[in-house]
């Protein structure tokens, strides 16, 4: 009887440990020691990372996106002749390549998927184009059916990120210093340009985050070391706030990278490459403005993408040059971060739960 109880207790503990572990996929650059997309187990109770494995051997999968049902995964393959790839997620977490299509521009750097899971959009940094692809029911990709070219005779585009929101498509163009809004045509899958904001100076809009209701947009500026806050109006959008991401005592060079809202949208986070920090902002839920409350070291070099785990209790940072992923605990009341530990992984660029 005692043996049975011990076995039951052990099984219960093992089940709980397994239930706390979720998959983390890591996109990388493969010019060095990295071989492609990696998977790790992340413990949502203590923030530990374990069981690092190569999910698939593939070239420069620098940015990743899930299908809504998490049966498929998508990546850009950032090279001179760029591609977008789709993968089936196997039962053991490894990936099987389904399709690989041209990105229709050099240097694809960002990929995202719409809410219904039937379209992806790819931003091509070097080519300055944005490509929209239909997704088949089996998760595979068709060729792009619409391509936007933001280049002009006098100005070079660097499309850096694009996201769907309901019937809208938003694009941050670092090269043209523009933030674009496209809308779906009536009874059509085609998008038309509806509105754009020309950013003042040369801040270099890179990534952005939308509030859940779509009323506020927060754009992190690569060159400006800043965040531009935008509010939706009846006539389009207007700037409501502008904040530095840097500590007031930092005087060195810096390039901002990524930006995310907390799960409850009370806090905003941005990454600084150069200062090598995460900037933490408290967000006013009424008017959408933000106020910086912390700059904390990433305990690594050149933080690119970062992410919050599904519980909202942890923040993880991909430090490209120092080849590590740093894990931070989020204070639920203040939003501030506390460093826990770092795990080595070659050239991490994108983290996906």
UniProtKB/TrEMBL annotation:
Presence of keyword NAD: no
SUPFAM superfamilies with a match to the protein in the record: C-terminal (heme d1) domain of cytochrome cd1-nitrite reductase
Keyword vocabulary terms for this entry: Carbohydrate metabolism, Glucose metabolism
The keyword Mitochondrion appears for this protein: no
Source species, domain of life: Bacteria
Pfam families membership: Lactonase
Gene3D superfamilies named among the record's database cross-references: YVTN repeat-like/Quinoprotein amine dehydrogenase
Record family assignment: Belongs to the cycloisomerase 2 family.
Designated name of the protein: Lactonase family protein
């Amino acid at each position: 009887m005692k043996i049975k109880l011990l076995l039951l207790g052990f099984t219960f503990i093992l089940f709980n440990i397994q239930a706390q572990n979720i998959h983390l996929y890591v996109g990388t650059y493969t010019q060095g020691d990295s071989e492609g997309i990696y998977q790790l187990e992340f413990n949502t109770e203590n923030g530990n990372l374990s069981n690092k494995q190569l999910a698939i051997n593939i070239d420069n999968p620098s940015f990743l996106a899930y299908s809504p049902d998490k049966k498929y995964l998508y990546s850009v393959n950032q090279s001179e002749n760029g591609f977008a790839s789709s993968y089936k997620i196997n039962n053991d977490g490894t990936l099987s390549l389904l399709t690989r299509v041209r990105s229709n521009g050099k240097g694809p750097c960002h990929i995202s998927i719409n809410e219904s899971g039937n379209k992806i959009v790819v931003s091509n940094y070097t080519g300055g184009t944005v490509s929209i692809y239909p997704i088949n029911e089996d998760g595979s990709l068709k060729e792009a059916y619409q391509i936007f070219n933001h280049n002009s005779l006098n100005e070079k585009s660097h499309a850096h990120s694009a996201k769907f929101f309901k019937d809208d498509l938003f694009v941050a163009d670092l090269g043209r210093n523009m933030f674009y809004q496209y809308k779906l045509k009536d009874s059509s899958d085609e998008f038309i340009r509806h509105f754009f904001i020309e950013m003042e100076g040369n801040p270099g809009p890179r990534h952005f985050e939308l509030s859940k209701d779509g009323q506020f947009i927060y754009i992190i500026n690569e060159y400006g070391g800043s965040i531009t806050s935008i509010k939706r109006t009846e006539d389009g959008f207007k700037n409501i706030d502008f904040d530095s991401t840097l500590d007031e005592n930092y005087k060195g060079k810096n390039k901002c990278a990524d930006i995310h809202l907390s799960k409850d949208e009370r806090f905003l986070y941005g990454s600084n490459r150069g200062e090598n920090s995460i900037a933490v902002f408290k967000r006013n839920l009424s008017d959408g403005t933000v106020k910086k409350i912390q700059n904390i070291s990433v305990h690594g070099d050149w933080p690119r993408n970062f992410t919050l785990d599904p519980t909202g209790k942890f923040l993880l940072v991909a430090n490209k040059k120092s080849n590590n992923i740093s894990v931070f605990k989020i204070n639920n009341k203040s939003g501030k971060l506390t460093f826990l530990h770092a795990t080595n992984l070659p050239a991490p660029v994108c983290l996906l739960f």
